[in-house]
């Protein structure tokens, strides 16, 4: 193994440990932590790791502090961003069940997220719950919204307004979700 | 014909109503275009000549501020509508109500890329934990160690307190008076036209003494024992002792002048480089 390859191989190992194993309450690591451990060329290390993960249907995801995606981020912006490993492709409904999501809960999450996107990223909790009550049993609605908040998909303020949180930004392609929902041929629910 | 008092009361009520509507739009994320900003501004302007009391003028300013927030929301609203993420909420709501749960989940799974996170204990961490456990003392032993030690109370003499700088030899006012005399003496010896350059006065053999002198000088100026002249063009600060302490309550507005007394400046002054 050449010296250069060895140099990156050890850094990739360190990055894998940091990114895969949960270190804080939230999954993933902040850019500045990677910077400190791997050095200033950590974006390159992550790029190599991302290429390697392609074959495993995983990817290194960057969630910027600001909500919008940054085209050519500076090192400072990367230092402030959060990096985590996410699935690159898609899960089948069966797989989703296996990772602990009931179909009802996932549908509820999808409805809540898309509704909040359509309301400019903010909606009163009552409105979201009313919409969910259409398809989920009433007793479950409040519990589900609390769960989405606890998992980091949604965020609630003191005025009972619900916003999208960091996990939705990291895991969900918001534009594609709304486009797909609007483009669906509506079939009546059973 | 309405009396002036009635008109004022009516105006206040109207401003309150405008503010409440603005706030509910802001807090409940309603469509900000439900507010007719032009009309509301016209109303505010109509009542403006009536306001005589500061409270009423403050109410007027607050209402204008609320309207400004609504204008900002309107601008954000327009910007959002022009982005690709804009979707008519009613259209989407209708679609969501009419679509089966399974289909919604199917769609969501196309765009959802869940994060991977592992919580696992390693051999290394088990070994670390065991080492820690072995070296950990039983609770009853640890608590014994942390029991506070009994300390006998004693007495301190005035000399000891003076040495530890808990007490001062002289009262501060007395010390300040003495320092004022020192300033006057120094001006008489080294000054020019009853004035002396700041650094020529505060500068001393040691840095600690210099800082102490600068500290006392600031009180001389604050309490009117001396006047500070700042010559911006020459970058010079001059101190002029007053014959008698000037009263603090004058017509002139008091200003604070920060003066840095750094080690570098003090060293420069010692070498005679600081002009």
Describe the structure.
The complex is a heterodimer of chains A (190) and B (275). Chain A has 190 residues and is an alpha+beta fold. Chain A has ten helices and six strands, in the order αβααβαβααβααββαα. In chain A, the strands form two sheets. In chain A, strands 1-3-2 form a three-stranded antiparallel beta sheet. In chain A, strands 4-6-5 form a three-stranded antiparallel beta sheet. In chain A, α1 crosses α3, α6 packs across α7 and α7 crosses α8. The longest helix of chain A has 18 residues. Among the domains of chain B are: 78 residues; 100 residues, Arc Repressor Mutant, subunit A, CATH 1.10.10.580. Chain B contains twelve helices and three strands. Chain B has a three-stranded antiparallel beta sheet. The N and C termini of chain B lie far apart (75 Å). Classes of the chains: A alpha+beta (190), B mainly alpha (275). The interface between A and B is large, with 60 and 40 residues.
Molecular shape of chain B: flat
Would you identify the regions of chain A where 5 or more consecutive residues have pLDDT less than 50? none
* CATH fold description of the domain at 172-271 in chain B: Arc Repressor Mutant, subunit A
CATH class of the largest domain in chain A: Mainly Alpha
**Helix amount of chain A:** 55-70%
The biggest sheet of chain B amounts to: 3 strands, antiparallel
Number of strands of chain B: 3
Kindly report the name of the CATH homologous superfamily of the largest domain in chain A. Winged helix-like DNA-binding domain superfamily/Winged helix DNA-binding domain
Major sheet summary line of chain A:
3 strands, antiparallel
- What percentage of the residues of chain B does DSSP assign to strands (E)? 5-15%
Strand order of the largest sheet of chain B: 1-3-2
Classified by CATH, the class of the domain at 172-271 in chain B is Mainly Alpha
Class from secondary-structure proportions of chain A? alpha+beta
Class inferred from helices and paired strands of chain B:
mainly alpha
